[in-house]
User: What shape does this take?
Amino acid sequence: MKVVEYCQPPAVDRGGGERRTPPLLTAEADDSLAEAAGRMQWHAVGALPVYERHALVGIVTERDVTTAVADGVDPVVTPVSAYMTPSPATVRPDDDLVVAVARMAELGVRHLPVVEEGHLVGMLSMRDLLGLGFAENGG
Assistant: This one.
């Protein structure tokens, strides 16, 4: 099993080895935490890859927003960059799914951006893996 088979949004094979994915949800480093939280809530996702000048620079998660609120910061004026995880671990679409799951467990993360030739093509999450017997309840 390969990562590309289980990441969101699903990549569509366009023939000749070309994969095309629907637009991906992201945040900009200077977006407010409130904007990022609203986007995650609206689209029912737990994390957003963070971009700055067209480069992946981090990942912001529900846990990051919760930490910011617990720290007493104002999420309306606090930028995503203040609480995101910088330089996140990534996987490639053709990576073996078992290896990707092991990496998630080793790093203690629930989301991994899927990157191909420097371009974000999807997001692998524990939610994607629940039905496969890889993920444990309580994550």
